[in-house]
Every structure is written in structure tokens, then in C-alpha cells.
Design brief:
It is built from 16 helices and 23 strands. The chain has three domains: 123 residues, no CATH class; 110 residues, Rossmann fold (3-Layer(aba) Sandwich); 260 residues, P-loop containing nucleotide triphosphate hydrolases (Rossmann fold), CATH 3.40.50.300. About 9% of the residues have low confidence. With 566 residues, the protein is an alpha/beta fold. Strand 7 and strand 8 form a beta hairpin. Bound molecules: adenosine-5'-triphosphate. Adenosine-5'-triphosphate binds next to helix 4, strand 15 and helix 7.
């Protein structure tokens, strides 16, 4: 048998530390990750199950029965003992054996982080460049040559001298993948690495990871201090959303599928055969069949909700928006497209009032809700625009003890702090939580699943979920709650900027059903029977746009310019 990096025998069960009650996972088949040869693992299946398996690989849980010596990680943790540099008292630390990259993690402190900082004058502490980040935050520090090589491969070389905070979300993601590679770990675990990346970037990064996997990209010597002869291949483990075969990278050789907390390892061929036999996996959305609502063609009899005319934004010589014009009328649905760094978030930040220049632009260039932007107080904007984005996800405070229901309720005023809720508002929030109750109960950390609470009434479970601390939900469900926060007030303008990022497929499928229901109800309650809510969706995945193809409109940006409006 090949030397193993990870070796978990069949029938192993995984428990949270200090809790012997219910196992988190059970291995139906052995999971064996070899140290050499061709191998890359994709973890597929339910979002929570995938997360548990990743945590298991990171040694966060306890195994039963205790694996025979030398344990689950026969090789990874024994590798490269600390070495003395000859002739010096310095001790060279080997690079970490396992490195984990996740893209849906909130800020570590739980405090509110000001995601608008990147738009304004940069503070001194925000001026650290990407290059400095690579040099100063990785240990051992990568060589300059290694930074150049990896940056080139990931096409971020032009960003090396930019302050970190200035990077767009796709650029940040590429940079974090670059950092993961530069750290030169034995095993690199990437969770949903392709979400939030434009099509081109996805292809490039998939290709780059494939090249790393096959050894075609030579990462040897990327880190100073790796003892000679100890350079190694990097094992890739990808946790991927969806259980189909579309989007499965070519170089993946094995699959760990997690269903109902049972882990099964298959070769890629076995897995692909199985999926093909069943037909492409369909998502079953219990009791919530989609009933797409036809879009009303508003004949523009009403004033636009957003009127941007010839707006340009530049930082020094870098033009981020270049003469952009865009009118959004009530009831219109727009898919805002453009590759990473093309200016989408910057354009939305002007509309949302997050960008300092939102207020100071020439009066004729930006009108919102039929008024020049300058005549609208920012709190009014916050009330009228529902907004969900990866930036809000990262910034929303986790340390203030807000409950799930309270977080959804902050959407009425678009704030980040507790507010008093009326009885009517509470009922509305509960009606939004209800279709997701089974997911929310199952996802709560260390709490019983809905299956074991059959005696509880829906009402009492609902109240319980409403009052549960937001931070006790896993990231997937925090993203769901922030989506509900965006729609709770039925705002005149709804901006869903990569809102599905971090959610698993079933959760997002249910969100889409909920949106259909919302739009039907808004139309039913309106005087003219027309859904007047304008919606802007930013997504690099066409299939994630929550309306039928051809029903909405498209605005596409390229390097800050509008290149398509249809
Ligand atoms: N202070 C700054 N100095 C220089 N360039 C900046 C600054 N702030 C932002 N940028 C650049 O502005 C461009 C637009 O960023 P923006 O976040 O709007 O892109 P995006 O289209 O939303 O990308 P993504 O799809 O990755 O989210 C990026 O190339 C970014 O690097």
C-alpha cells in the first residue's frame, strides 16, 4: 500500500470533542489519501456534512474507535521535524502540513468590520500591499521568485502593489489561493474555491490547481527553510457544492460523498457512473415547488428607481468606472455581469450609499427613487434597498448576541444592530424562517435535529430558532439569514450581490422558491397588481440567477465600461 497522508478505516465514527452523544460522521468505506502518485479528492454532498468532513481532516474532532498507531495522519504530522540551521541558533519551522482555505468565514473577532473602508481614503494600517501580505504573513516567508511565479500563474501580478483592501472579492480569492500555494503545505484543502469567480478565472484556477496537482507547476523551493530533499507534492482536497458531475475538475481522482452524515469514498469513475445512472441529480425541494412569476413589462410609465448618468470613478490613474449610465425601473430585473475587478461592486456601492463619492458626485449623475442622491439621507436609502453580499456576510457582527430573528429584523432599517420589532414584523420574520425550519434546526451546532424533536410543535421550534444566537448557526445558514434580512421589508430595490455564496444548493433552491412567492405576493398586494420591486443580481453563474433565462435584463461591465445593456 502507498504511504498514507490520511488513513481512516471503515466504520470509524467521528464525535465532537467532549460529547459522546451523536456521531457527526460515520465512514462507510475507508478514506485513504496517499502521499504520492496521482490523487486529488473532491468532497461532495450536503453542505453541513462536507463541513464536518473538512473539520475532521483538520483534527477538530475525535475518532472512535481510536485508530491503530500511527493514527489517522500517519505521515502528515510527523513530517519534517524542526531543524537547526547549521551555525546558528535559529530553528527552522517546517511549513504547516495541512492548510485550509475557506471563503465563507466571517471575521475572526466577531466585531463589525467596515467593508466600505476600501472605497475611501485609506488608513495607514490599510495600506499593506498584497506583496507585503505574502512576505510578512506566511511562515516561512516565500521567496520573491516564488511570489512572482505563483502570482503570474494566478494572474495577480498586476495587483501585487495594491493595498489589500482595494482588491475586489474575486481578486481577494485568487490572492488567498496564491497564499495557500505559497505556504507549500502537504495537503491543501479548499472549500468552494470557485464560487464568486468569473468563468475565465474559474477555468484558469482549475487549470492552475490541476497543474499543481500533476506536478507540472514546480512549487519546490517556494518557501525558504524547507530542508533539501524534503520538498514534496501537494495533495489537493476540494470541497465542492453540488453532487452532479458538472464542474468536477478533470484531475480529481476520488470522491468522498457525504449524505446523511455517512461518508463514502469512491473512485471518480464509480461516482460518475452512479450519477449518470440516476440521471443528473435533481434537487428535491420539499413542499415548495417553484412557480415562476412572469415579469411585468413596466412601460416605464413610472420614474426610475436608479438613474446613473455618465459616472466615472478613479483611484489615481486607475479608472474603476468609466462613463457608466444605467436606469433601473420599478419591477425590472437586472443581471449585473462582468469579470472579477470589472467594477460591479463599486457601481453598487454608489447606489447603496457606501461609497464616499455617492454623496459628492455631480447632482445630475446619480438619482435614486426620483431624487438626486444628495437629497436623500443615507438611513432612508438603507430602508428602501435590501442588500445581501459577501461583504455584508463578512462584516455582520457575531459578537453582539443578536438572535436569528433579530438579525433578519435588522433588514427593516438596513442596520447592523438590535432594534425593537412590532408584532406584525415578528410575524413576518417567522413566515420567512418557516420554509427553512428543518435546515435551521439541523444546522444548529450541538443541538438535536428536527427528527428527534417530533413532539415539538412547529410554532415552538420556530420560536426557538427565532431566539437562537445568530453566531450559533453554521456559515451556510448565516448566509441564509442574511438573505432573509435583505428581503424582509419588501424593499423597492433588492440587490443580491453573490447572495448564494456560502449557501449549499438546496438552501439556495429554496430561496429561489421563496423569491417567486414574494414577487407573487407583492404583485397581489399592489394596487395595479404589478410587482414593482426592482431587483439586481450579481452572479458569475447564470444558473443562479433567480428568474428564467430571457426574463430579465443584462448590464455587463468590462474594465469599468458598460459593454452590454440589453
Ligand atoms: N483604492 C484603490 N486603488 C486602486 N484600485 C482599486 C482601489 N479600490 C478598488 N480598486 C480596483 O477597482 C476594481 C473594481 O473593483 P470591484 O470590487 O468593483 O470589482 P467587481 O467587479 O465587483 O469584482 P468581483 O467580481 O471580484 O467582486 C478592482 O480592479 C480593484 O482592484
Amino acid at each position: 500500500m502507498k504511504r498514507a497522508l490520511v488513513s481512516i478505516p471503515a466504520a470509524t465514527r467521528v464525535f465532537p470533542r467532549g460529547n459522546a452523544a451523536a456521531p457527526l460522521l460515520r465512514f462507510r468505506t475507508p478514506l485513504h489519501i496517499p502521499d504520492d502518485g496521482e490523487y486529488a479528492l473532491a468532497i461532495v454532498g450536503e453542505g453541513e456534512g462536507r463541513r464536518r468532513l473538512v473539520q475532521t481532516l483538520l483534527s477538530k474532532h475525535r475518532f472512535h474507535p481510536h485508530p491503530p498507531a500511527p493514527g489517522i495522519f500517519p505521515y502528515a504530522f510527523n513530517w519534517a521535524p524542526r531543524e537547526h540551521v547549521p551555525g546558528s541558533s535559529e530553528v527552522v519551522q517546517p511549513p504547516p502540513s495541512i492548510r485550509h482555505l475557506t471563503f465563507s468565514k466571517p471575521s475572526a473577532t466577531g466585531e463589525f468590520t467596515d467593508f466600505t473602508a476600501r472605497y475611501g481614503a485609506l488608513q495607514e494600517e490599510d495600506r499593506d500591499t498584497l506583496f507585503q501580505f505574502f512576505r510578512e504573513s506566511l511562515f516561512p516567508a516565500p521567496t520573491e521568485d516564488a511570489i512572482t511565479a505563483v502570482s503570474h500563474a494566478l494572474r495577480i501580478q498586476h495587483l501585487l502593489n495594491l493595498p489589500l483592501v482595494a482588491l475586489s472579492s474575486g481578486q481577494t480569492r485568487r490572492s488567498r489561493i496564491a497564499a495557500g500555494l505559497l505556504a507549500s503545505p502537504r495537503m491543501l484543502i479548499l472549500e468552494d474555491p470557485f464560487a464568486g469567480l468569473d468563468v475565465q478565472s474559474r477555468r484558469e484556477i482549475a487549470g492552475m490547481l490541476g497543474a499543481v496537482n500533476s506536478g507540472a507547476v514546480d512549487l519546490k523551493g517556494t518557501s525558504q527553510g524547507v530542508p533539501d530533499g524534503q520538498e514534496h507534492a501537494m495533495r489537493l482536497v476540494l470541497s465542492l457544492r453540488g453532487t452532479g458531475i458538472i464542474g468536477l475538475p478533470e484531475y480529481v481522482t476520488h470522491i468522498a460523498r457525504v449524505i446523511d452524515n455517512e461518508v463514502e469514498t469512491l473512485s471518480k469513475e464509480e461516482y460518475v457512473d452512479g450519477v449518470e445512472r440516476q440521471g443528473e441529480t435533481q434537487h428535491v425541494v420539499p413542499d415548495m415547488a417553484r412557480q415562476p412569476v412572469a415579469v411585468q413589462d413596466s412601460q416605464h410609465s413610472t420614474d426610475p428607481v436608479v438613474d446613473v448618468q455618465g459616472v466615472s470613478i478613479a483611484y489615481g490613474d486607475a479608472k474603476v468606472l468609466d462613463d457608466v449610465s444605467w436606469r433601473i425601473h420599478p419591477g425590472e430585473r437586472w443581471h449585473l455581469q462582468g469579470s472579477n475587478g470589472s467594477g460591479k461592486t463599486t457601481l453598487l456601492s454608489l447606489i447603496l450609499g457606501h461609497h464616499p463619492q455617492s454623496f459628492s458626485l455631480p447632482i445630475s449623475t446619480l438619482s435614486l427613487f426620483s431624487k438626486p442622491r444628495r437629497e436623500i439621507a443615507t438611513p432612508t436609502l438603507r430602508r428602501r434597498i435590501g442588500h445581501a453580499s459577501p461583504e455584508i456576510f463578512a462584516a455582520f457582527p457575531r459578537s453582539m448576541g443578536l438572535s436569528a430573528g433579530e438579525v433578519v429584523g435588522t433588514g427593516y432599517e438596513g442596520v447592523f444592530s438590535r432594534r425593537r420589532m412590532s408584532e406584525e414584523q415578528r410575524t413576518r420574520i417567522e413566515s420567512l424562517l418557516e420554509p427553512f425550519l428543518d435546515l435551521l434546526v439541523a444546522g444548529k451546532r450541538g443541538k438535536p435535529s428536527l427528527k428527534s424533536t417530533t413532539t415539538a410543535t412547529t410554532k415552538s421550534i420556530l420560536e426557538h430558532i427565532y431566539d437562537t444566537d445568530f453566531s450559533h448557526f453554521p456559515p451556510n445558514q448565516q448566509a441564509l439569514l442574511l438573505f432573509l434580512r435583505a428581503i424582509v421589508s419588501r424593499p423597492s430595490l433588492l440587490i443580491l450581490d453573490e447572495a448564494s455564496q456560502g449557501m449549499d444548493e438546496e438552501t439556495w433552491a429554496r430561496c429561489r422558491v421563496l423569491l417567486d412567492r414574494e414577487w407573487a405576493e407583492i404583485a397581489r398586494d399592489a394596487k395595479e397588481g404589478i410587482n414593482e420591486q426592482a431587483v439586481v443580481v450579481v452572479s458569475h453563474w447564470e444558473e443562479e440567477v433567480p428568474w428564467e433565462k430571457g426574463q430579465g435584463r443584462i448590464l455587463r461591465l468590462h474594465e469599468g465600461k458598460v459593454v452590454l445593456k440589453e
